[in-house]
Design a protein that fits this description.
The structure holds 2 protein chains of 2 kinds. Chain A is of the alpha/beta class. Chain A has 12 helices and 9 strands. Chain A has one domain (about 5-270): TIM Barrel. The radius of gyration of chain A is 17 Å and the shape is globular. Chain B is α/β, with parallel strands linked by helices. Chain B has 2 domains: about 1-60 and about 100-215, Rossmann fold; about 65-95 and about 215-400, 3-Layer(aba) Sandwich (Rossmann fold). Chain B contains 17 helices and 14 strands. Classes of the chains: A alpha/beta, B alpha/beta.
Chain lengths: ~280, ~400
């Protein structure tokens, strides 16, 4: 089974550059604006798109993504409407891979089988579900693979040599290396350590390795792109959304362009590194 | 109950993957997974080490003041005119609640693991005070996460924790209460993986916490069993305890789960009433979901977003419940009832006036249902109610609800 994610990484490899993976929150600050932002991402330089599924209790996220989720929920976003975003996006783009990222409870309540079917039909390619480690693979990971979706696992600085094979089993699409032991949007990582960790993971798998957490600027992106197959940027984009809002927290004429400008800048950082 | 009849024992859980039936598990981020596996290993080793148990027992005797008395509440019994009501007096423990039983176990374990920095979440502040106390005793750094709303409504405990040398971090994310304090503690743990031990205050969270906290709290039930056999020459006929996350209740219940003659009642906080939507009764008003590392009954909306709980008692104000209680509920072994804010306030006053014991608002929930159940039972029915905390911390908020102290 080849997914859009596999195709995209293979194409970029032959182009000789890393992928830019962009994260934005579905429904932030409202459903229509989030859809406009997501539609504008590929032209701005995003190679893959992660769409956050808002959750009240995002235990691995820092203040920026927590706040984005709460803005989206306050605006009425649900998991059903998040899948609608993907459906709308696919009408104009059949190639850019879409990954839904979030926490298990909303999916569990939606119903795992129905969710997987709806997500696949809408044009979702992969899932990142933070609180489903390999120990709970029967819950979502295995059903997702069976439904034809990639299940992208997080590897972290605490994932040692002994545990790595367990994390990599049942992982597909790519491996998401979390650059720091911490929450999203926290400290800038030590790029040397990240390069070593990525090299170590690559000894265990042929899957592409993308690196996220703490990437804020084009320079950060260049530094990561040297060793990794992909660079993930999330909190910085979500912050760009927040800063563009008016005093009532509503979207403005600048919201979409604030995000696309930052994506273009970071994309230039990724593309400057030839491999 | 058909499920009950087919099970040989209710005391063998969880299984090796941390599940009580369909509940429990380890739903945590990968960063934490190696940490909870380490913790499980360390706890398994400690559990098999007589020296660990001896050290804990010594602290129970000389520091906490255990065993706590099993007290015959004569005037309450007379007033009710039914079952003979005994109170398990865990409110007499050092720090004023059952929380210290669990904290000492976890802190001794943290020391064995070489951890030097202890983090905890707290709602009413009782678990925070117990953790700060044990950290002071052992010279460990202590950081307590507490919802900003709770910091405001539980000021005496905030002061206590500061006196004991703990750092209090008011949590301003989400709904600014206990569930958010737990999120923030998990975020701290993810960010400080080397030196930090997360001391969870209730029988919830990822495996092995629900099992470990239950084991440490089971001292309550073990003592109560021996004390009742000594006093009355037989087992009690019923047990009653309040439930937030459920650690005092599982501590009392667990040693009796395989005694079919013992009826067991857990009491949730019904706030303004389960039908009102403003309550903390996860079993009576929620459904199964996944939060804070385990599958259990939760309060949530149709989209799986976690709802805010409401209770007059900050210690019961949590939208979930320990996974073992979820399982005991589904198997039918334990009956789960609920008590509203106003019923708890009445019981609070009743016990104060009849027995000279001011209970915490949490066990006042248990007293309210216990009195009702006892009234329908014969005089030779023996009942134990877990008095898991004292009411000193609650007198000001109770005074506010009752219209002031004249």
């Amino acid at each position: 089974m080849t997914t859009r994610i596999d195709t995209r990484f293979a194409a970029l490899k032959s182009e000789g550059r890393a992928a830019l993976v962009t994260f934005v929150m579905a429904g932030d600050p409202d459903h229509a604006t989030a859809l406009d932002v997501i539609k504008a991402l590929p032209a701005a330089g995003a190679d893959l798109i992660e769409i956050g599924m808002p959750f009240t209790d995002p235990m691995a996220d820092g203040p920026a993504i927590q706040a984005a989720g709460l803005r989206a929920l306050a605006g009425g976003e649900t998991l059903h409407s998040t899948i609608d975003i993907v459906r709308s996006f696919r009408k104009g783009d059949s190639e850019t891979p879409i990954i839904l990222m979030g926490y298990f409870n909303p999916i569990y309540i939606y119903g795992v089988e129905v969710f997987l079917k709806d997500a696949k039909e809408a044009g979702v390619d992969g899932l990142i579900v933070v609180d489903c480690p390999p120990e709970e693979d029967d819950e979502l990971c295995k059903p997702a693979l069976k439904a034809g979706l990639n299940f992208i696992r997080l590897a972290t600085p605490t994932t040692d040599e002994k545990r790595l094979p367990k994390v990599l089993s049942n992982t597909s699409g790519f491996v998401y290396y979390v650059s720091i032991a911490g929450i999203t949007g926290a400290a800038t990582p030590d790029f040397g350590k990240v390069a070593t960790a990525v090299a170590r993971i690559k000894m265990h798998t042929d899957l592409p390795v993308a690196v996220g957490f703490g990437v804020k600027t084009a320079a950060d992106a260049s530094a990561i792109a040297k060793g990794a197959d992909g660079v993930v940027v999330g909190s910085a984009l979500v912050e760009a959304v927040r800063k563009s809002l008016d005093a009532d927290g509503k979207a403005t004429a600048q919201t979409v362009s604030a995000v696309t400008a930052l994506v273009s800048e970071i994309a230039a950082g990724v593309r400057a590194v030839k491999k | 109950m058909t499920i009950q009849q087919t099970l040989n024992s209710f005391r063998t859980g969880p299984d090796e993957t941390g599940h009580f039936g369909n509940f429990g598990g380890r739903f945590v981020a990968e960063t934490l997974m190696p940490l909870i596996l380490d913790l499980e290993k360390a706890y398994t080793e400690a559990k098999a080490d007589p020296a660990f148990h001896a050290e804990l027992a010594s602290f129970h005797t000389h520091y906490v003041g255990r065993p706590s008395p099993l007290y015959f509440a004569e005037r309450l019994t007379e007033h009710v005119g039914g079952a003979k009501i005994y109170l398990k007096r865990d409110e007499l423990n050092h720090t004023g609640a059952h929380k210290i039983n669990n904290v000492l176990g976890q802190i001794l374990l943290a020391r064995r693991m070489g951890k030097t920095r202890i983090i905890a979440e707290t709602g009413a502040g009782q678990h925070g005070v117990a953790t700060a106390t044990a950290c002071a005793r052992f010279g460990l750094k202590c950081i307590v996460y507490m919802g900003a709303v709770d910091v405001e409504r539980q000021k005496p405990n905030v002061f206590r924790m500061r006196m004991l040398g703990a750092e209090i971090v008011p949590v301003v994310s989400g709904s600014k209460t206990l569930k958010d304090a737990m999120n923030e503690a998990l975020r701290d743990w993810v960010s400080n993986v080397e030196d930090t031990f997360y001391c969870i205050g209730t029988s919830a969270g990822p495996h092995p916490y629900p099992m470990m906290v239950r084991d440490f709290q089971s001292i309550i039930g073990k003592e109560a069993r021996e004390q009742m056999l000594e006093r009355e020459g037989r087992l009690p006929d019923s047990l009653v305890a309040c439930i937030g996350g459920g650690s005092n209740a599982i501590g009392l219940f667990h040693p009796f789960l395989d005694d079919p003659s013992v009826a067991i009642y857990g009491v949730e906080a019904a706030g303004h009433g389960v039908a009102s939507g403003a309550h903390a009764a996860s079993l009576n008003g929620g459904r199964p979901g996944v939060l804070h590392g385990n599958r259990t009954y939760l309060l949530m909306d149709a989209d799986g977003q976690i709802a805010e709980a409401h209770s007059i008692s900050a210690g019961l104000d949590y939208p979930g419940i320990g996974p073992e209680h979820a399982w005991l509920h589904d198997t039918g072994r334990v009956t789960y009832l609920s008590t509203t804010d106003s019923e708890a306030l009445e019981a609070f006053q009743l016990l104060s006036k009849l027995e000279g014991i001011i209970p915490a608002l949490e066990p006042a929930h248990a007293i309210a249902r216990a009195v009702e159940i006892a009234a329908s039972k014969p005089k030779d029915h023996l009942m134990i109610v877990n008095l898991c905390g004292r009411g000193d911390k609650d007198i000001f908020s109770v005074a506010e609800h009752l219209g002031g102290m004249e």
